[in-house]
Design brief:
With 404 residues, the chain is of the alpha/beta class. It is built from 16 helices and 14 strands. The longest helix has 17 residues. The chain starts with 14 loop residues before the first strand and ends with a helix. The relative contact order is 0.16. The structure holds pyridoxal-5'-phosphate.
């Protein structure tokens, strides 16, 4: 398989190899998604749409975000040089606004009045509430009760931004249930509302749409990296993987560069290492998942013994999801990207290390990617590592300080 093949994916039915598609029982939901897909495929290459998005990225989000060389960290390790793509500096403090502004602009163009979303860490909720405010759309965010407690500051932000936060009280009361709840709500109001997913997951066209909106991260990073290093590409591009949107966003621009190693980092949670697989203690879907169809699409999922999406754990709620984007499942299957695991403990060390050495407090999600870079760097002197620093850690301070 040549790498260029990735450029033509997904196919018309929304498949990346054997993963993706639309796996939904409700004919009404299928119909709505087909309408959304028709609309999106037409507008995605429209000049006016692209120019509006460009304007928003520059003048509202503050893009391009820079790449920072982590000098102190790199010199301390004395191995590879570590660079950070600073999505923590994107407006609202994470990469998520990249696809939320795109989805909200799309909703506006479709004549919708309202955005419906789910959120885990609250980052997608804040980003979608921000986008809704910008476009003067109503906004309803479904969020697990457990996450509401864990991510208080983000809940407050959503409410200040004018969104309605709906607590999800069934099942594990976390991200997976929030997705189910948001879908149910969308089904009631599909005429006037648009469901806006938080990652490259869910039924077609969401994985393609979110990837395309996030690909700005890699496009910027590739150009910036070439400039900083006088024409070199990174040897490694590392990103954390929950659903996989920040990872695919930065990977996309390097997929055809065969010498660039793409590494996705999954949360091993409470486990010591990836030799263990204790259900409920991690959320490493690619490392331990199996092919299944759930939440509207086919991909790798962590399943319990009844074949249902399994309970998951990670110190970072944003990675706490038992599925993964279908494109990652294919990148894994073809070997174009490698997936590794980092546990809670190493993630927290990296969180403090980067804060102290570089003056950048990373999100716990992003700290997984930083932790892997710190692990890898000593063994590859003179190489260059580019880490996607997907977000900032302000939202995690209460949790980190309460648990250390
Ligand atoms: C939500 C989130 C993630 C995980 O989502 P992906 O879709 O895997 O990128 C990672 N980092 C931050 C800061 C997040 O908010």
């Amino acid at each position: 398989m040549t790498n260029t093949i990735f450029n033509n994916l997904p196919n018309k039915e929304g498949y990346f190899g054997q993963y993706g598609g639309v796996h939904l029982d409700s004919p009404k939901l299928q119909q709505e998604l087909a309408k959304l897909n028709d609309f999106y495929q037409k507008i995605k290459d429209d000049h006016e749409f692209i120019n509006e998005l460009k304007y928003i990225r520059k003048h509202f989000q503050g893009r391009p975000t820079p790449i920072s060389y982590a000098r102190n960290l790199s010199e301390k390790i004395a191995g590879a040089r570590i660079y950070l793509k600073r999505e923590d500096l994107n407006h609202t403090g994470a990469h998520k606004l990249n696809h939320c502004m795109g989805e909200a602009l799309l909703a506006k163009k479709m004549g919708k009045k309202k955005l419906i979303a789910e959120t885990g860490a609250g980052q997608h909720g804040v980003a979608i509430a921000t986008a809704a405010a910008y476009f003067a759309l109503e906004c309803e965010v479904h969020m697990g009760e457990i996450d509401i407690v864990k991510q208080r500051p983000n809940v407050q932000k959503m409410e200040i931004l004018g969104a309605k936060v709906i607590p999800v009280t069934f099942g594990g009361r976390s991200l997976k249930e929030a997705v189910d709840s948001a879908f149910a709500s969308y089904l009631q109001e599909a005429e006037t509302a648009l469901y806006t997913i938080g990652s490259v997951v869910g039924p077609h066209p969401f994985p393609q749409m979110v990837r395309n909106f996030q690909s700005i991260v890699g496009l910027e990073a590739r150009e910036q990296f070439l400039e900083i290093t006088n024409g070199k590409l990174p040897d490694y591009v590392i990103a954390c993987v929950g659903g996989g949107s920040n990872a695919i966003g930065i990977f996309k621009a390097f997929i055809e560069d065969e010498d660039v190693n793409l590494v996705g980092v999954e949360p091993l949670g409470k486990m010591k290492n990836a030799k263990q697989n204790i259900i409920g203690e991690h959320a490493a879907t690619i490392l331990f998942g199996e092919k299944a169809s759930a939440q509207g699409f086919s991909s790798l999922f962590l399943l319990d013994d009844k074949g249902q999406p399994a309970p998951v754990h990670s110190v970072s709620s944003g990675l706490d999801y038992p599925g993964v984007g279908p494109e990652h499942a294919l990148l894994h299957e073809t070997g174009r990207a490698t997936y590794v695991g980092i546990n809670d403990k190493d993630c927290l060390s990296a969180f403090f290390e980067l804060s102290k050495l570089e003056g950048i407090i990373p999100a716990l999600e992003s700290s997984h990617a930083v932790a892997h870079a710190i692990k890898l760097a000593p063994s590859i002197p003179d190489k260059n590592i580019l880490v996607n620093l997907s977000g900032r850690g302000d939202k995690d301070l209460d949790f980190v300080l309460g648990n250390c």
